[in-house]
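Much of our argument rests on the idea that a fold can be written as discrete symbols. Part of our work consisted of pairing the sequence of a single chain with a tokenised description of its backbone. No coordinates are needed to read the tokens, only the vocabulary itself. The record that follows shows the chain in one-letter code together with its fold in token form.
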Amino acid sequence: MNSNKPALQEMLHQALWARSLTAQQMARVEAETVERTVPAGGYVCRKGDPVDHWIGVVEGLLKMSSVSPEGKTVTFTGMLTGGWFGEGSVLKTEPRKYDVVALRDSRLAFMPRATFDWLLDNSIPFNRFLLLQLNERLSVFISLVEYDRMLDTDARVARCLAAMFNPHFNPGKLRHLQISQEEIGYLCSTSRQRANQALQVLEKAGLLRVDYGSVTVLDLDGLRRFDA
């Protein structure tokens, strides 16, 4: 359902990859990209689904994760308003390798594979953006493996929050994030209570400020380096 065209158009025009498109290219993107809503707890896509779209977050909060054969859930990343994901999957023909769940009511932009492929064929800046995006994604996933295996919960929460402010995935974000402790727990694969404890540690270290339903980052580099 395309419920709010002006908001979708504004999100598309503000996207990093869209800034170097021609008027003709942008017109096709606007005409062929549609908006859909997913309620909190709903699946945006599931592991094993065919990949037919590149997906952006018009408004909301998503979690990308996978469940191992042993039943362990591994969270890869969170996606905020303005972020796009799944470019690696669109470039392949194999089924999707992860689940994406909406942590709150979310509005999403779905760009068809045909539109995505057409931009690949017709826009050098779009290709450059994808190369940078894929490289950043690889760096994040390598770090994920490192801190999931080597760091305690306080440090994992710090790194998880820092990743939310990566300008390539969540552009235009200020240092203030409307997010609940329960949502932080989901993103960091821990309980709300343990996330709360970690936030208190990070607040005492002067790295962030915790308010009701929100977090303000005071020292982003400090969060990225934090190792309790």
Summary: Residues 76 and 145 are 9 Å apart (CA to CA).
